[in-house]
């Protein structure tokens, strides 16, 4: 049998016996759950009352002070009123005389019973206090029901399971306090004690409701008054609405921690809540435990905002420190159009040759005259790479085509737009080849005037010798990888009926890698790409979102489990690559081939399919990240579970051939990038399956498909390749690059080994060879270097004439022309030079 102390630790529930025997459990009479000590205390109170009913009192007045019920017996054992009394329901009535000896016996017995009962009650109250001290806090139904409860005197703290009803979210701990007025957080029990919400303050416990209708201001004020500065107020999610509404002024939230449960919104006049650390002394500076949604109504219009946890960490907890590698050191230079730019025009779309043009220039502007000759007229900066030029256009209401142009040693790119458009037209003309055109949408231009061509700040970044970007308001809208080195970047017009002015010319050198801009991503392939248990594409989005200025507008995953390379190719040929809104992706991700390997599809067929897939994206000008087929193993190696597989050991031939194709496509287009997924995962072995993650964590959940850990590694590899495609390295460095034969002067033939390279500082190393009819050179023109290779100062050096009898003096002029003078006849000239361009 349990002891009284053991029974005291148990929870008890009142029942109403209203069912027939054997009909099942009795129905609860009330939802209140109470500890055994409450029952003990109530029973002892009853004993005391009963003892008082037969207690011998010295006087009739003392007996009348005892509240009795009809039929109760009372004794007066002294004085003129001595005798036995019976209570008639309203008063004590004399019944009969009591002999003195009997009266004393009754009095002694009654007093003994009374003392025993009171001692028992004291013991019970002491036990109750002891139970509280040991953590067994009495639990009652609701805050609202406390006023009808008599709580044992030894209790100093209680718990309620709700505000108005059990389970309504208002569970709270209340401590006994001194007398005070009733508030949202303070109430009085029937025994006269006062109880106040303490410890963690819960809005629902104070009468708050997340129904977006109840005004929670008074509950909030009560909560703020119950906790010290820096205290915490909990906002539980109770209703489906999940919105705590506050009306009637700015909330007193300064310095408080708001513990807002996920899915809950705070709505009211917040008077621009400050992010912690932004303005700690602000009048309305709350601190939140987690990212919290707020709807601010202080302006009369609902404004959504988010409060974030504070990150004012001590030095030892800082996650990182900035170092030299984190610094951006761009240098801004004013461009003088009259002296720093080259003004040229070209016929579009057929022209290959740029000719001199004559706009009106000042120290800060370029003005083009009226013209309708289907020509682009551009003011160029002869680029030194890793630099950016910005400009704005005048005549906001004028309908003329604003333009940007980029020249390379192999052709030119042009971008143009009229004033009320939301897209840039793109044209590319390789020398001797017909022009091709496309377009790119300007994010937000359909709805934001600031993004439209006539209002926007235009920019061009020569990211490196083989990549450039066109920018709108400082953010890239198109990145292009070129095959030939970039030589010029500039801005101008195409056909005008007015005289537009380009102003605000600014050169930014060594611009850091930011402003990549809005992206639409397309993923395709087999079940290793498909959206199964989350998948890596969503992790990829999280990785690159916000990196280098990237904002992911949309991610589309069209991968299907069981598909082969032929299935993916057929889908792209049939349904195209545009999303459901008709927009091209800005970057695509392809991985397919595991099923080709299992089916023993011809390796040549597989590669033909993959190259056709890559060509679809190349034709659309969309960079595509390609990963070789995933590594997998047999069902037996996985312990017998998973899926039946075939030919898992045949994969090397497919992967090697695909790597060759990727390299070739990149070399010819600059648009195909390889994601090194298999290296990022390490060895994929069945022996790791089910292993201790502190030793070897498994990569595959069966024998072919990734775990969440495998997904993370896939996403990491894909993200690295994506950033290579979307954000080419900003650098002046270039590897050995062949010079175009077209730079040779008349009568000269450029050796096919003629090339240049540059280091990260832009210093050029030139290796140029020419052959010609045997002659004695005398200031003879040999070649003209591309604009991007012009030296900062005239260079004079000795060349090699291919013999031991002739000396050749070579001059490389700042305009890029190379001339030579020899001491005797020669037919060969080799030049080696290293020089600075600026």
UniProtKB/TrEMBL annotation:
Domain of life: Bacteria
GO molecular function: hydrolase activity, acting on ester bonds
Name this polypeptide is given: Uncharacterized protein
Organism expressing this protein natively: Allorhizobium borbori
């Amino acid at each position: 049998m349990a002891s009284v102390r053991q029974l005291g630790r148990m929870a008890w529930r009142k029942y109403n016996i209203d069912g027939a025997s054997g009909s099942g459990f009795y129905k609860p009479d009330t939802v209140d759950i109470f500890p055994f000590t409450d029952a003990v205390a109530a029973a002892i109170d009853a004993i005391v009352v009963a003892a008082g009913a037969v207690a011998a009192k010295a006087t009739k007045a003392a007996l009348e002070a005892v509240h009795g019920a009809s039929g109760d017996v009372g004794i007066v054992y002294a004085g003129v009123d001595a005798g036995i009394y019976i209570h008639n329901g309203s008063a004590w009535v004399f019944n009969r005389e009591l002999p003195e000896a009997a009266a004393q016996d009754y009095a002694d017995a009654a007093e003994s019973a009374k003392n025993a009962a009171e001692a028992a009650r004291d013991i019970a109250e002491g036990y109750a206090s002891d139970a509280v001290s040991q953590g067994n806090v009495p639990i009652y139904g609701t805050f609202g029901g406390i006023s009808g409860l008599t709580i044992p005197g030894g209790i100093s703290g209680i718990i309620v399971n709700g505000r108005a009803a059990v389970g309504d979210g208002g569970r709270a701990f209340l401590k006994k306090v001194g007398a005070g007025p009733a508030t949202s957080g303070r109430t009085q029990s029937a025994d006269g004690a006062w109880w106040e919400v303490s410890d963690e303050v819960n809005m629902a416990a104070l009468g708050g409701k997340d129904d977006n209708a109840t005004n929670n201001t008074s509950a909030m004020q009560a909560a703020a008054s119950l906790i010290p500065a820096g205290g915490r107020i909990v906002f539980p999610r109770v209703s489906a609405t999940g919105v705590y509404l506050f009306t009637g002024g700015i909330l007193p939230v300064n310095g408080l921690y708001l513990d807002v449960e996920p899915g809950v919104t705070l709505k009211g006049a917040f008077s621009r809540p400050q992010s912690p650390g932004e303005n700690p002394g602000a009048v309305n500076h709350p601190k939140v435990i987690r990212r919290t949604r707020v709807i601010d109504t202080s302006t009369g219009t609902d404004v959504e905002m988010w409060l974030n946890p504070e990150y004012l960490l001590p030095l030892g907890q800082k996650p990182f420190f900035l170092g030299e590698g984190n610094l951006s050191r761009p240098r801004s230079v004013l461009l003088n159009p009259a002296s720093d730019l080259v003004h040229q025009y070209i016929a579009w779309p057929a022209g290959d040759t740029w000719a001199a043009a004559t706009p009106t220039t000042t120290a800060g502007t370029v003005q083009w005259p009226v013209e309708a000759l289907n020509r682009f007229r551009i003011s160029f900066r002869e680029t030194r790479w890793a630099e950016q030029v910005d400009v704005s256009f005048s005549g906001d209401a004028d309908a003329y085509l604003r333009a940007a142009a980029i020249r390379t040693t192999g052709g030119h790119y042009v971008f143009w737009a009229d004033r009320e458009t939301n897209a840039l037209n793109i044209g590319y003309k390789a020398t001797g080849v017909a022009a091709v055109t496309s377009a790119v949408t300007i994010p937000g231009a359909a709805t934001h005037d600031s993004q439209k061509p006539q209002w926007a700040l235009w920019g061009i970044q020569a990211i490196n010798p083989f990549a450039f970007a066109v920018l709108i308001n400082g953010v890239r809208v198109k990145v292009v990888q070129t095959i030939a080195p970039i030589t010029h970047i500039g801005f101008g017009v195409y056909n005008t009926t007015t005289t537009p002015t380009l102003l605000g010319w600014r050169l930014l050198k060594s611009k850091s890698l930011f402003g990549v801009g809005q992206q639409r991503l397309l993923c395709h392939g087999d079940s290793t790409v498909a959206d199964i248990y989350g998948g890596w594409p969503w992790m990829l989005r999280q990785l690159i979102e916000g990196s280098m200025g990237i904002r992911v507008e949309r991610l589309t995953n069209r991968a299907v489990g069981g598909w082969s390379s032929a299935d993916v190719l057929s889908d792209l040929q049939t349904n195209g690559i545009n999303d459901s809104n008709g927009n091209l992706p800005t970057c695509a991700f392809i991985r397919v081939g595991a099923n080709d390997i299992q089916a023993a599809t011809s390796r040549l067929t597989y590669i033909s399919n993959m190259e056709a897939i890559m060509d679809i994206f190349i034709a659309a000008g969309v960079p595509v990240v390609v990963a070789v087929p995933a590594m997998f193993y047999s069902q037996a190696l996985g312990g017998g579970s998973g899926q039946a597989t075939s030919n898992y050991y045949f994969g090397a031939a497919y992967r090697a051939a695909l790597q060759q194709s990727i390299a070739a496509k990149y070399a010819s287009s600059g648009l195909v990038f390889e994601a090194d997924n298999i290296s990022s995962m390490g060895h994929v072995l069945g022996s790791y399956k089910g292993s201790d993650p502190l030793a070897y964590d498994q990569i595959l959940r069966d024998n072919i498909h990734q775990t969440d850990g495998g997904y993370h590694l896939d996403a990491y590899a894909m993200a690295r390749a994506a950033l290579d495609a979307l954000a080419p390295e900003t650098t002046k460095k270039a590897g050995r690059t062949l010079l175009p034969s077209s730079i040779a002067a008349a009568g000269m033939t450029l050796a096919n080994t003629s090339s240049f390279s540059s280091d990260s500082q832009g210093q050029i190393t030139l290796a140029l060879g020419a052959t010609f009819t045997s002659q004695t050179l005398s200031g003879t023109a040999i070649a003209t270097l591309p604009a991007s290779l012009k030296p900062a100062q005239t260079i004079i050096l000795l060349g090699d004439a291919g013999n031991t009898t002739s000396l050749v003096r070579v001059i490389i002029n700042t305009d890029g022309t190379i001339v030579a003078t020899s001491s005797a006849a020669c037919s060969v000239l080799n030049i080696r030079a290293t020089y600075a361009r600026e």
